Amino acid sequence: MAGALRRRPVLRRGMTASARWGGRPGGGLLAGPLPLSVLFSVLLTAVSLALPPVRALGHAELVSSVPAANASLRTSPPELRLTFGEPIDPATAAIRLIDGNGVAVPGLGPLSTDVGGAIARRSVPPLPRGSYTVRYRVVSASDGHVIDGAFGFLVDPTGTLPNPSSAPTTQSPADPAAIATRWAALSGGLVLFGTGLFWLLTARPVLAGRRRAAIGARSLWAVMLICGCLTFAAIAAFLRLAAQQVAAAGAQGHGGADTAFPLDFAAPFGQTSFAMAMRVALAATALASLLAGAGLIVAQLARRQRRVAVAGGADAQAESRAGIGHGVPAALLVAALLAAALGLLGASLAGHAAGAGAAFAFLDWLHLLAVGAWLGALPGFAVLAVASRSAVDERRPLLAGAFARHSRVAMVAAPVVALSGIANSPIVIGQAREVVASGYGNLALGKILLFSVALAIGSVNFFLVRRAGARRLLQLVAAEVVVGGAAVALAAVMVSTQPAATRVPILSQSSLQTAHLYGTAGSSSVHVAVNVPAPGDQLYQVAIGDAATGGDRTDVRNVSVILHPPPGGGAVARVQLRPTPDAAVWSAAGAYTPVTGEWVLEVVIRRAGAPDATTTFPLAVTEPIPPQRVPPPDIGIGVPGIIGTVWGILPAGPLGWSPTILLLALAAALALVSRTRRYLDAAGTLTIARNIAVVAAVALGICVGLRSTIAAANAVPAAAGAMNSPVTGSAESVQRGRQIYLANCSACHGVNADGNGPTAPSVVPPPGEIVDVARRSTDGQLNYLITNGYVGTPMPAFSTRLSENDRWDLVNYLRALARAPRPGER
Q1: Positive or negative, the Cα torsion across 460, 461, 462, 467?
Q2: Model's pTM, two decimal places?
Q3: Domain holding 744: CATH number?
Q4: Is 629 contained in some domain?
Q5: What would the pLDDT profile of 333-369 be if each residue is shown by its tens digit?
Q6: Three-state DSSP class for 85?
Q7: Roughly how many angstroms between the first and final C-alpha of the chain, as a whole number?
Q8: Of 91, 425, 755, 806, which sits 20 to 30 A from 77 (CA to CA)?
Q9: What angle, rounded to 10 degrees, do the helices at 176-198 and 273-311 form?
């Protein structure tokens, strides 16, 4: 909140204007509140830049495991070893092993952790051949979050069965009740601190020397007492809910019945850093509540003494000498304020930023203190405004002075809120892509938007309502309170959400899939499956059926496969297949195609009383491109439809800001005309037009800003953009790429890549033309876009849909389109 009811504050006798604002007489540019905020902002920026680039470890996400997710093992693993991104609480951790039938494997050893607490182990008995799933549920020792997850692996002594294909899962159970309690605790703590700070720095100096110096004292202490009790109860409720989640995992936990401290709601979490931080928050909030209660008693006694003094005819000086003129003892208020600040420190130590180190926890604490000083102080101003209604003759100068003083605090607090948030954002968001592609990043964008709205309201206060009455002022204060409450609600959800920086990259689709070959041999139908047509071990399976009826052949005596190598590829390999439990299926495993090239696979079928039947198939044996680690999938909310529609209207690039700038210029011109030529705005038409221009400018600015944010989030890393296609752009590759394009891309981008596919009209924002993108992009940039999609839009990622080879074939096809002349070009 910034601004004042009057252009200049009321000066007390003997005080110059520069001294009134905290400056020096004749201080010039160094006088006033702005230099302090600028200097503090510069200092905070320097500290932020000096901090090393690290990643927040909020939420104990699984970083790696042995066995690895989707691994295929020839022998049974001796143990399960899970490595998490931060220490876990071993007493509340649970790790289970489930076999292919969904039954828990018995005989696992006790769970243990290493010295650092981030690696958990359980010994495993010998496992028979089959697929297995590891399920885990752990509690972060740093922030108390519960993490569920699962991944699979395969025990296959032959090494020929395909690896498990299910993606590893990890989630933090979302509990609306836990989010609500966090919001209540955070809101109460901010108002508790902000109200006390407002009264110490703003209300007390303004009330000093006035006859009604004790205005609002009881209301102040009552608000602080209510906020303190609410915060304590909310923290306790949150810890109870968190303990219930831990108990749901089946872990024994730390108990809590034998704790030596009463009301120790953090006992189920033992002596972890999270539990200690919560104890700090509980104890500090309880102390602040007790001090607020004591202050309320003091204010009530002072009120009674004043009534007695007034009844006895005492004047203001006599009241002051008796020590009953203020009602808000400074020492008691400072003590309550420090306790409230300590409670916010406990919240910061239990948050995401604390996982990155003490420096980032301090920045988070500074962020909370600044929010409390700025937005958390608004209820204190409301208390003063309501309590001063009886002082009709003093109310306007009283509120003017309070408003001016709080403006000085806000001018320092607002930059601190912004810069401390910016400093901590990289450690919890990570790459710019995650701002759009993750739920946490979307929440951060929403919080930034609300911060901007609150800042805009403060600007309106400062520039447009300097002479407004108390009613208009309180309306804007109420608007700031609503915006601040919404921002705190988003912050509470963010605290309960997995930080974007901890999302684990995934592996792209394997470049080679099972080759299925179909044909006939005499009167028999033949289906051949080769699991990995590449050099190395392969599994060959041949199913024989009756070509006429489609039924299984059960009279087959022998099936063999003859593998003919490409020229210069070695000797012919003859492989005898073995029958399987399925009478119609024969199989064999081995490394029979040692070189790449075009092989010929011949199947020979021998039936009782019939001559041998043969058929041949071409088999392309290639060296697969290893799967790549790619960013996690896009789970953001995407672009709202109305904003995406506006994108299609606004100019591309920086010119998209021109309508916003023009509307703001129009609003400024209308404001100037209505101010200098009041007779032209007698009916208020210019004011209405100005407001419409401002609203339209803000709306368009949000659209363009979001478009710029999404463009930045999809920027291709330099290393990825510098890659060249490892697949030669031959005619065969281009043809394969064309088939892939028609199957996966043409519905939106059109058969001719002109952006006019059959589903394009319903896609928001519009898909656009690909040829121009291909002409100005490198091979690596195209591959990155195909692999990861364009986050924030309907353009999906193909990292798990297309193989590495397929994606490079698609790049080669787009390159061919870019080289081809368009209609009308020469």
Answers
A1: positive
A2: 0.72
A3: 1.10.760.10
A4: no
A5: 999 999 999 999 999 998 878 777 788 889 999 999 9
A6: coil
A7: 62
A8: 91
A9: 40
